[in-house]
């Protein structure tokens, strides 16, 4: 008897053996897939996403752009297109975005920035400075291949004694997997999804550079008919999230996660999209843009505090590592002094202002604990795994989590 299409346990098993490939164009499940080529009514920033070569690029503001490094050839000297207008970048303005310290990552991420000679007069985007948790609603925008109007179905046959899987096109009644074939047409398109889980470590296709990324999964099912997935052409595209009624740029589309031996030029339900989590690169982006405040590229983000570690905000004691001690420093201060504004009088060698808002609160401690949890649960698409923290560190983190449990509840209620 043929098994039920896409049982949850089967999807989870496949996720554990999938591999990441460069991400290209956003496709959607609705109708024949040709919709959403103009800005939606609740526009997150459709005009701010353009094309560079065969991939996507996002305009930040103040003539600065960001994209995926693997989307740009080393000798690229072509044009960047926003809304049908061609722009050129300033020679020498290009910069690789460094990875944060403390995660055993490569020196540089797969993010790449450059400045345009002429400003395209597009809105300045707000950049998220806190990571998006699982279940966060997102809007995805990218340019690339569209899909065929009809579904395509495949039977998957494992090869005995091997991890290889043979995919054979079939009909719905015999199918193990369902999805779409891609066309050769490239179009800018938007769609919606949810974050499947928080920041993961992903190794991109470009020179094995690591990037800390958010994950979305293409289930092609309610509640949204416009469920979106990255495909050929979306690398460098945008992932937006809602914050206080407005949109923030939270990710740059990086790669897609496919099933073993999945046929080329297909997108299947259960595939995933990885987008670089810009909250992990917020300070690096500001540094490259040459600003000491968030106003020029992240208008709703707070000004940088002198008590924030610009190299890595979660490194409270400045020892170039994120450990349980960083969380304990903040918890001790909460117990001894309590929350409140920070000033130069607080300068005792510690970087108390983890989230850069000029205040000291439970949110700063929670940010460090989240960073520690990230180091504990990092996943790897390629390459070697990140070492897990020691049992002592985990015990301290658990204690810190218990100490802040009531404070977390108050924060979630807005108190």
What does it look like?
A hairpin with a 2-residue loop joins strand 16 (238-243) and strand 17. The protein has 415 residues and is an alpha+beta fold. It has helices at 8-15, 282-289, 324-336, 362-377, 391-403, 405-412; strands at 19-22, 27-28, 49-52, 55-61, 64-68, 80-82, 85-87, 95-98, 108-115, 137-147, 152-158, 165-170, 177-203, 210-217, 228-229, 238-243, 246-258, 266-268, 272-277, 340-341, 359-360. The radius of gyration is 22 Å and the shape is globular. Helix 3 (324-336) packs antiparallel against helix 4 (362-377). The protein has two domains: 1-301, Thrombin, subunit H, CATH 2.40.10; 305-412, no CATH class. A seven-stranded antiparallel sheet has the order 7-6-3-4-5-9-8, covered by helices on one side. A six-stranded antiparallel β-barrel has the order 10-13-14-19-17-16. The protein has six helices and 21 strands. The relative contact order is 0.17. Residues 1-25, 292-304 and 376-415 have low confidence and may be disordered.
């Amino acid at each position: 008897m043929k098994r039920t299409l896409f049982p949850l346990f089967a999807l989870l098993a496949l996720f554990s053996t999938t591999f990441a490939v460069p991400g290209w164009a956003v496709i959607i499940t609705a109708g024949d897939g040709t919709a959403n080529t103009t800005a939606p009514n609740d526009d997150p920033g459709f005009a701010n996403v353009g094309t560079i070569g065969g991939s996507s690029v996002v305009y930040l503001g103040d003539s600065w752009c960001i994209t995926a490094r693997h989307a740009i050839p080393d000798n690229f000297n072509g044009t960047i297109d926003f809304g049908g207008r061609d722009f050129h970048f300033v020679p020498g303005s290009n910069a690789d975005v460094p990875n944060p310290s403390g995660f055993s990552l490569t020196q540089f991420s797969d993010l790449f920035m450059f400045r345009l000679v002429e400003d395209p007069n597009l809105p300045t985007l707000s950049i998220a400075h806190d990571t998006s948790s699982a279940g966060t609603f997102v809007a995805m925008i990218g340019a690339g291949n569209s899909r065929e109007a009809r579904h395509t179905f495949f039977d998957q046959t494992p090869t005995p004694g091997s991890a290889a899987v043979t995919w054979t096109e079939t009909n719905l009644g015999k199918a193990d997997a369902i999805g779409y074939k891609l066309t050769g047409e490239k179009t800018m398109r938007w769609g919606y999804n949810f974050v499947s889980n928080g920041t993961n470590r992903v190794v991109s296709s470009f020179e094995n550079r690591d990037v800390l990324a958010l994950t979305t999964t293409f289930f092609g099912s309610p509640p949204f008919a416009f469920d979106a997935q990255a495909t050929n052409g979306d690398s460098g595209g945008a992932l937006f999230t809602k914050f206080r009624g407005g949109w923030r740029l939270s990710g740059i589309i990086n790669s897609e996660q496919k099933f073993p031996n999945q046929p080329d030029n297909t997108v299947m339900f259960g595939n995933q999209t990885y987008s670089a989590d810009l909250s992990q690169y917020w300070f690096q982006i500001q540094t490259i843009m040459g600003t000491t405040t968030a106003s020029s590229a992240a208008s709703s983000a707070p000004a940088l505090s002198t008590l924030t570690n610009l190299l890595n905000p979660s490194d409270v004691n400045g020892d170039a590592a994120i450990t349980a001690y960083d969380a304990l420093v903040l918890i001790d201060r909460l117990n001894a002094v309590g929350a409140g504004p920070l000033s130069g009088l607080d300068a005792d060698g510690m970087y108390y202002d983890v989230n850069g808002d000029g205040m000291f609160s439970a949110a700063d401690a929670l940010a460090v604990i989240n960073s520690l949890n990230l180091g504990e649960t990092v996943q790897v698409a390629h390459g070697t795994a990140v070492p897990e923290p020691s049992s002592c560190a985990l015990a301290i983190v658990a204690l810190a989590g218990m100490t802040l449990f009531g404070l977390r509840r108050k924060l979630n209620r807005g108190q």
